[in-house]
Structure formats: C-alpha cells, structure tokens
Design a protein that fits this description.
Number of domains: 3
Radius of gyration: 21 Å
Number of strands: 10
CATH architecture of the largest domain: Sandwich
Distance between the termini: 70 Å
Order of helices and strands: EEEEEEEEEHEHHHHHHHHH
Strand content: 15-25%
Helix content: 40-55%
CATH superfamily of the largest domain: Jelly Rolls
Shape: globular
Number of helices: 10
Length: 267
C-alpha cells in the first residue's frame, strides 16, 4: 500500500491579495476550481492533470497556471511525490494592475508551459514574497514584472501599444534621495502612469528596472559616505540599506571590492 504524503506550507505574504503555498504531496486532487489566478513551478516529481484543453503533464521546472473558476485536477505520475510552489493572485488585484492595458479579463491559455524565463520570474517573486521583504519597490516590481511577462507571453489579450513616456521625474526622485524608501506606485504617479506602464517604460528607457537603479544609486551614495570617513554601519543606514551586509553585497556587485577595502584605500 502506498503511503500518503501530503505536506502543505502556507507562507505569510507581505502584500494583500496574494497568497503563497508550497506543497510536497502524492495526493490525488479531485476536480476543483480556485477563486484566484494561480501560477507556480514544479520543483520535483511530475503530475498529470485535466484541464479545459484536455489532459496535460507537468514535470520539474515546468510552470503551471490556472485561471479563476477553471476546473482542474492533479494526479501524481507513478504515485510519486511531486513538489511545487504556488502564488495565488486575487483577480481584482490583477484587474487593477492591467486596467490601463486591456478591458478584458486576464486569462492564460496554457495550464502548463516550459518557459524558463517565466519560471525564473515566478521563483524570484515567490522568494521575495516568502522572505517578507520590507523593500516595497522590490516587492511591487516583482509582482508587476511577473504579470507583464505572463500576459505578454501566455495571455489571451495583447498589451496595448503605449509610446514610451518620459521618466525624468522618477529618475530625479531616485537620484535626489536614493536613501529614502519609495514604492513603484510613487514613481508611477510621478509619471502619470499605471505601475504596469511605468515599469515597462522605465526599463525600456534606462535598460534596468527601477529597483536595480535605486540599489545602484544607494551604492554610489554609500561610496561617497565611506570616502568621507563614515563607519560602515553608519554609511549603510544613511544610504538606505537594510543593514551593513546588504550594503556590502550591493557594493561588491557594483564596484568589485568590499566597502571595508575601499575605505581603507581612500581614507
């Protein structure tokens, strides 16, 4: 007799309208539906499921998606344990994000896809949310970026064509006070755009995301503070980093040397 394994972990999400769940199970899920839009990654094992387009199979690395109200089931292949992480979005949250892009409901057309880039998007978003990050810009950017990619590659509706708006005010805000926390909503409002539109416009114009740009500006501010003799912990706090180790990681990534070695060489 096969031993039943069913381990479920409900993670705390720092954002309302989003739920996180990780599972390791050989349970046979009967046909059912969710009220939310779900997207996840199979971390191990494989499963077979019924969907609106027929029976599909998903294995390690595959992305699984389900629309609100869509009937589906889940059966482990060979009764072996399969592991997966799921993110569930409230439909209203998605509607609010995409209202400037399309009036039609957001839906995906494939319950399973082998899309490595989407898989990385989902994994990164899950890790940022499950880690309960307090960096609002990073959280929002990952949410919107994942939705942008999912809609662009796997949605039923094409994005509207927007001309690239000016992002000068957002850049000015990030340049003038990189140490002060800012949200994606704040930056989008400065440009009179939705968060969705702004993230696409900024990345297209600058070549990196707003969060990546903000981290680079903080690292540059920390460099100035260190050159002026501030202690490492003080420089980290004054430049907007969560702690000294966070500053060190960003500093090494950008300048190729640790803050301590840099300061020792210039002070």
């Amino acid at each position: 007799m096969i031993k039943r394994i069913h381990q479920v972990l409900q993670h705390r999400s720092p954002l309302s309208g989003i739920e996180l769940m990780s599972l390791a199970s050989n349970h046979h899920f009967p046909r059912h539906a969710h009220d939310q839009f779900g997207v996840g990654v199979i971390d191990g094992g494989a499963q077979r499921s019924w969907s609106g387009i027929g029976q599909v199979e998903a294995g390690r690395g595959d992305v699984i998606m389900v629309n609100p109200g869509e009937i589906h089931d889940g059966i482990p292949i060979d009764n072996r344990i399969r592991k997966w992480r799921m993110i569930y979005f409230d439909p209203q949250l998605i509607k609010n994000e995409l209202k400037a892009e399309t009036h039609a409901p957001f839906e995906v057309i494939r319950p399973v896809t082998q899309d490595r880039l989407l898989s990385r998007h989902v994994e990164r978003l899950f890790n940022v949310l499950a880690g309960c990050s307090t960096d609002r810009l990073a959280l929002e950017e990952n949410v919107v970026g994942t939705l942008i990619y999912a809609l662009r590659r796997h949605g039923t509706h094409q994005l509207r064509d927007h001309s690239r708006p000016c992002v000068a005010r957002a850049l000015q805000r990030l340049d003038s006070a990189p140490e002060v926390p800012v949200s994606l909503c704040d930056l989008a409002n400065l440009s009179n755009l939705s968060r969705f539109q702004f993230l696409r416009a900024f990345t297209g114009a600058i070549g990196i995301t707003p969060h990546a740009y903000a981290i680079q500006r903080r690292a540059r501010l920390a460099k100035q503070l260190l050159a002026n003799g501030f202690a490492l912990a003080d420089a980290a706090a004054r430049s907007g980093f969560a702690d000294q180790s966070h500053m060190t990681r960003a500093f090494v990534r950008q300048f190729g040397v640790t803050p301590r070695r840099y300061q020792a060489a210039v002070v």
